[in-house]
Amino acid sequence: MPDCVLVTGGAGFIGSQVVDRLVEQGERVRVIDNFHPAAHDERPGYLNPGAEYIEADVADEATFEHSLDGVTAVCHQAAMVGLGVDFADAQQYVQDNCLGTARLLTALAAKDFSGPLVLASSMVVYGEGHYECPNHGSVKPAPRSREDLIAGQFEPRCPTCGEQLTPSTVTEDATTDPRNVYAATKLHQEHLCSLFARENEGVRYVALRYHNVYGPRMPRDTPYAGVASIFRSALERGEAPAVFEDGGQIRDFVHVSDVARANVLALNPDSTAEGAFNVASGTPRTIRDMAEQLSIAAGPEAPAPKITGEFRLGDVRHVFADAGRARDVLGLTAEVGLEEGMREFATAELR
Fold first, then answer.
1. What is the pLDDT of residues 130-163, one digit of tens each?
2. Catalytic residue among 126, 182, 205, 210
3. Which pTM was predicted?
4. What is the distance between the alpha carbons of residues 165 and 130, in angstroms, rounded to a whole number?
């Protein structure tokens, strides 16, 4: 059987666009996707006819009985994403993300797989971003308390002296500190893949830590979607995007086309890239700024964002990337800026 690239979750928002790029450059591509109802209410019309599709769940051991034949590279996108609704989602996150990854790696080991293994990870593994205290230098703030958030005290403070901290970029060697169930499962995926690569000669493992991805094919109207999709869905209903806290949370919003390109670069058999990489635009913006750009792009009749003061206890205040390692090692430089991306996203087709 000819060599092929396996893309798990290849019918999804990001995975499908990785598939498009791989097919375009002449690769033979096999997709495993369970078409989960949280992400799909039907098979999407954008599926690339140049790829082979297997409807199956990576958490099901039987999925891999024949689906790995000829596979020489793996792009593991399949996962349950977002913060979810409440802790009752924990079991599903662990099954889809942790057990699913373990099943995949076990099957790859049985096939004596060697080659690139690219994992869709996330900036959520960092927890809060990097902060500087005027008195104590680089510090890691404790999780924000419910009492502070109710009082509107959103900025983290130094755990030693209580001074307000100054946020700065986070690099790949930062201490990981997941602060919600989804984040814990993404870090577990990283650990499993890293161990697999260490124990199996010839496996080159890359973890792409996506920052806030947006663009066409995002799922609409679901608590598991990203903040950009939630805002876009509100505008389609004629409602103002509801911005939590004071809107000053700093993130890095990266267009899905740049994320898909990062995956293709990491999968290149000639690449020597290994380990974790921030996948980001390198130009951090506040959530309020993103919401405003999206409202402007939606047209003069679109409502302006509404700052609500609401909060989610699992959210972090600031996390934004140093994109230097991806630029220097992967060769990735983001091509789509926020204003351009939001002009497209304001009218792009969503799922």
1. 999 999 999 989 888 999 999 999 999 999 999 9
2. 182
3. 0.93
4. 9
Phi, psi of 133 (to 5 degrees): -100, 135
| Helical segments of the chain, H only | 15-24, 90-93, 100-110, 146-150, 181-199, 227-236, 256-267, 287-297, 324-325, 338-345
Predicted confidence (pLDDT) per residue in 78-137, tens digit: 998 876 667 778 999 899 999 999 999 999 999 999 999 999 999 999 999 999 999 999
Residue pair 286/252 in contact (Cβ under 8 Å)? The answer is no
User: What gap in Å lies between CA 328 and CA 287, rounded to an integer?
Assistant: 28
In angstroms, rounded to a whole number, what is the distance separating the alpha carbons of residues 19 and 170? 29
| Interatomic CA distance for residues 24 and 311, integer angstroms | 42
> DSSP class of residue 218?
P
Q: How far apart are CA 61 and CA 290, in angstroms?
A: 41
> Which candidate, 98, 100, 107, 156, places its Cα nearest to that of 132?
156
What's phi and psi for 131, nearest 5 deg?
A: -135, 150
Residue closest to 343 by CA, chosen among 304, 293, 301: 293
Q: 152 near 309, Cβ under 8 Å?
A: yes
Give the strands of the sheet with 203-210, arranged side by side. 52-55, 29-33, 4-8, 71-76, 115-122, 203-210, 275-279
Checking DSSP bridges between strand 166-168 and strand 130-133, what pairing results, if any?
Answer: antiparallel
Tell me if residue 182 is catalytic: yes
